Amino acid sequence: MMATNIEPRRRSIFRPCIDLHNGLVKQIVGGTLSDTTPSDLRTNFVSSKNAGEFATLYRENNLHGGHVIKLGPGNDQAAEEALKAWPDGLHIGGGITLENCQKWLDLGAEKVIVTSYLFPSGRFSLERLQAVSQKTGKERLVVDVSCRRRDDKWIVAMNKWQDMTDMEVNQESLDLLSEYCSEFLIHAADVEGLCQGIDQELVTKLGEWVKIPTTYAGGAKEIGDLDLVDKLSAGKVDLTFGSALDIFGGSLVRFDDLVRYNDRTNHEGS
Question: What is the pLDDT of residues 217-249, one digit of tens each?
Fold first, then answer.
């Protein structure tokens, strides 16, 4: 009887992040960002370290594919610091448009992340997606389909997750978007920053729907959530930790443990 070599399936890994607000590295409760009522903002953590220091930490620990998100104005200099500390190691998002996407790639971003630009007046524009993809190249474009739950559906939210769009996150929409980008980033805005657990139903659905690398963020509170996401998504979705993480002032998850988890997972897959 001939032996068959079965390729081990991909395993979910930890993806790091740098969230920037008013030029500082912060962890915030995602659903509280508002242009009209800024006093509603709930901040979990403000770092004394700059974005470049976090980028250096990620580079030194070989944590590829992390995302730098500029939440509003006043963050360009901090974002540039991060990209300078790790050229071609990070993805940059927040205010990315057809006009500035190449600039951020030239500054050292491995990929650019786009959301709001694709939804003028909240309506999806395939033409805009095609134009950005053509300019950056599919392989250097990430589409952020961060969303909020409405009844039994997830609807893409834009403009720092304040405004709902006309796009539902489902098999059809993700198939369309994946023709023009190489990755998805998905913040579950309703649970972002709460450290009360991931949206398991959304992660399960993403595991069924996605055909390209995908990173989920929102609610992760323990290192066991990596195994949970791996199980629910069959290894198709990676996980970002934020407010629960010790480097962001949290007490629930140790950064060093996540690094070891990735090292072990990558070793097993090689």
Answer: 999 999 999 999 999 999 999 999 998 999 999
Q: Which long-range contacts (CB under 8 A, 24 or more apart) does 100-104 make?
A: 101/132, 101/135, 101/136, 101/141, 102/135, 102/136, 104/79
Whether 122 contacts 166, CB under 8 Å: yes
CA atoms of 229 and 5, how far apart (whole Å): 26
**Phi-psi group of 235: left, alpha or beta (phi > 0 → left; psi -120 to 50 → alpha; rest → beta):** left
CA distance 214 to 206: 8
Average pLDDT over residues 203-219: 97
Cross-sheet strand order for the sheet of 147-150: 147-150, 153-158, 163-168
| Residues whose CB is less than 8 angstroms from the CB of residue 212 and which lie 6 or more positions away in sequence, other chains included | 178, 181, 182, 183, 184
Q: Which residue has the tokens 């913040």?
A: 187
> The tokens of 194 are what?
């709460």
Q: CB of 86 within 8 A of CB of 64?
A: no
Beta bridge pairs of residue 4: none
pTM reported for the whole predicted model: 0.92
Structural contact between residues 64 and 55, judged by C-beta atoms closer than 8 angstroms? no
